[in-house]
Amino acid sequence: KAGVTQTPRYLIKTRGQQVTLSCSPISGHRSVSWYQQTPGQGLQFLFEYFSETQRNKGNFPGRFSGRQFSNSRSEMNVSTLELGDSALYLCASRSVLGELFFGEGSRLTVL
Amino acid sequence: GENVEQHPSTLSVQEGDSAVIKCTYSDSASNYFPWYKQELGKRPQLIIDIRSNVGEKKDQRIAVTLNKTAKHFSLHITETQPEDSAVYFCAATNTGNQFYFGTGTSLTVIP
After folding, report:
1. pLDDT in tens, A11-57
2. Of A105, B28, B40, B71, which sits most exposed with the smallest number of CB within 10 A?
3. Which residues of B touch A43 (CB under 8 A)?
4. CA atoms B107, A83, A32, B6: torsion sign
5. Among B62, B30, B28, B57, which Cα is nearest to B45's?
6. How many Å is the Cα radius of gyration of chain A?
7. Helix, strand or coil for residue B83?
């Protein structure tokens, strides 16, 4: 069974631009969560989608948004990028037993 | 909401010694407690988990214990090896809720 797949793996943007990251969950998993990880920081929860609906939301500004499609694939978007948005963005899918499995992440650098 | 605290933030042990990482949680409704290992530059990987109806679980050199009354759970690694060096995260959640992660423990195993 394929794992959680995230694209792109690396990207560089400039301040003010926007970015869209994509995540394909493990087959059969209907829940997808997004996390931001910065050096020395833990895993900061962004949001979780289940069956195309946002089920949980973290404490991030409205510049961070997401969506989920009918095939459970998810995208997250960050608008008006700031230097502080440079981070590793991790997607995770959740099994029916509640286990969370992470993708390799998308490393965003904002210049 | 749930609050998960993790200690210590850094831990150094000699190869062959044991390592123990402790987490506390605040929400008595939490019923699933996973542990993740994240090696440098890689994704967090689920290494062991425990549910609230179990007090202890072992998998070879790693074990997790749960004390529901005191609301704390611990990761035990015996006979540590250099490849155990990584950052370890604990988490707590319940059905349909987001995962709440600890801030991580950087474990270094000294050969």
Report:
1. 999 999 999 999 999 999 999 999 999 987 789 999 999 999 999 99
2. B40
3. 44, 89, 101
4. positive
5. B62
6. 13
7. helix
Predicted local distance difference test score (pLDDT) of residue B31: 95
Relative to beta strand B62-67, strand B72-77 is antiparallel
Q: Say how far apart CA A70 and CA A86 lie, in whole Å.
A: 29
pLDDT at A89 over 90: yes
End-to-end CA separation in angstroms for chain A: 37
Q: Give the closest residue to B95 by CA, choosing from A51, A45, A94, A23.
A: A94
Smallest Cα distance from A71 to chain B, Å: 20
Question: β-strands B10-14, B105-110: how paired?
Answer: parallel
Q: Closest Cα partner for B25 from B87, B104, B102?
A: B102
pLDDT-derived band at A3 (thresholds 50, 70, 90) equals very high
Given its phi and psi angles, is residue B69 left (phi above 0), alpha (psi -120 to 50 degrees) or beta? alpha
Contacts of A99 in chain B (CB under 8 A): 34, 46, 49
